[in-house]
Amino acid sequence: MKLPGTVGLVLCGLTLAGCHKAVEISPAAMPAPERWNATLATPTGLAGAVQVKGTAWMEPDMKDTSQTVVHVAISNAAPGGAHPWHVHRGQCGQDGGILGPPDAYGILKVGRGGDAESEAKLPLPEPKNGQYFVNVHASSTNMGTIVACGNLAPPAH
Predict the structure, then answer these.
(1) What is the pLDDT of residue 90?
(2) What is the DSSP string of the chain?
(3) Cα distance between residue 125 and residue 99, in whole Å
(4) CA-CA distance, 73 to 111, in Å (whole number)?
(5) Which of 8, 18, 84, 128 has a CA between 20 and 30 Å from the CA of residue 156?
(6) Please, which pLDDT band fits residue 45 given cuts at 50, 70 and 90?
(7) CB count, 10 Å around CB of 67?
(8) Whole-angstrom distance, CA of residue 85 vs CA of residue 44
């Protein structure tokens, strides 16, 4: 059935308004202006044997800006795995040492689906410049093998 122009537009507008649903955006999904971000991947030397992927970010602690919060999430890891991880100075493959105390970082405990997340609170203000990266170690007994690494891109100011 074809409706005259004005009536059709009114009905169309009423239909759209009736279907309108408020969309909520999680604050965690919104870009943070002070956040350093990284995409993690398995180094090429292990490609094929392991293919871990992930993301990481680093930002000032909103409650105490003298501290920095770092978050890492990985996927496609071996279920049941336990992976130490750290933020380092430098870039993947050019290690300048761990940022903050090594014991501030937890262990990534991989669930049955191959996913793991961890967060660390470093007792230092968020860096304003420099180069940093996140690496994920094979295990606490095999710290020399990196199963995922990602360079942290600085916040856009």
Answers:
(1) 97
(2) -PPPHHHHHHHHHHHHHHH-------GGGS--TT-EEEEEE--GGGBTTB--EEEEEEEE-SS-TTSEEEEEEEESPPTT-EEEEEEEEEETTEEEEESS-GGGS-EEE--TTS-EEEEEEESSPPPSSS-EEEEEEEETTEEEEEEEEEEEBPPP-
(3) 11
(4) 12
(5) 84
(6) confident
(7) 17
(8) 18
Prediction pTM value: 0.77
Token code pair at residue 95 = 């290690």
Tell me the residue type at 40: L
Distance from C-alpha of 47 to C-alpha of 81, rounded to nearest angstrom = 18
Q: Which distant-in-sequence residues (6+ apart) come within 8 Å of 111 by Cβ?
A: 79
Residue 21 has pLDDT above 50, yes or no: no
**What would the two tokens of residue 105 be?**
């970082």
